[in-house]
Design a protein that fits this description.
The chain is of the alpha+beta class and 351 residues long. Helix content is 25%, strand content 12%. The longest helix is centred in the first third of the chain and has 52 residues. It is globular, with a radius of gyration of 24 Å. 45% of the residues are buried.
Length: 351
Amino acid sequence: MRHRLRSGFTLVELLVVIAIIGILVGLLLPAVQAAREAARRISCSNNMKQLGLAFHMYHDTYKRFPAGANAQYTPATGNIQNYNWYGYSALTMVLPYIEQQPLYNQLKWNSHHYDGNVIAPATVSPLAVSRTKLAAFLCPSDKDAPYGAEIGQSNYGVCFGSNIGYGLGNTGEANGMFARAVYKKMADASDGLSNTIMLGEWNKGDNDGTTFDTSADWANNIPIGTLRPNTTRKYPTQAELDAVGAAALSAGPSSHRSVAGLRWIAPGQYNSAFNTLATPNWRFPSLMDCNGCGQGDSSGVFPSRSRHPGGTMHTMGDASVRFINQTVDLLEYQGLGSASGREAFSDTTGG
């Protein structure tokens, strides 16, 4: 009697093979995700390196850095103003040095940065220019932001230092490499360029006013008087930061902004600037003291944030790029944000 030779898999064998494949995929997936994030982190680092070099080239040309808010001409009054929220960001001023000279040339500086009108000799409005999305200003690890027509987004900005930032203007507290109304020079970084933060990153908002995302949104109308320097210390303590952070966490669900990174052309914090009062990826939400202000153009706590695990990218004053751990010592990080605080630094900030 002849017997047929069996071919193929039995059901049990097939299930075993499927289980083995599932186990292998489960082991491989984290490695693939880690490799992808490593590639995104390298791309982010390259972006920040190029921006650092762009600011150096700007400085070589003009012998100073741009201000945090740069001059715009007001036809009605004939005044040039660089101290308010409708000036142009520092990022705008380095467009020619990141291969965006044609875009820069469209700006004629005769209206504010969000003006939708075309005023001669311009042939396009500043608002239209600002809607240009530039890869050089975007971290590939971050989520896309649903801003609709307002697509000129940003994850990077200049460092206002270890202070409340935008509201200071030209005062002694404005200790960063950049300030709202001040044109600083490399020589002002007496701590040394390699010991001074020039640029940092943050997460874009989700444009959803109903959901409070503490990794990207900021709370409004938070009193910050305790964060100002006093006779006993020049930077706020961890306890003082925790107190205002807890207030922001409590108030945020009912009063917050979800437009971080909305416009690279705007000079406000989380549009084109941040500060180093709190450490990277601060466990509390960002905050500002103004209720009516819309886009970070007020005093507050706007720390560096990212989707990179464990910390955030920073460009130092010498254009080198450092990944700073979110566990960095607070006082040391505040010192890195200051350009002339005469602090001593260890080698514990890197990641």
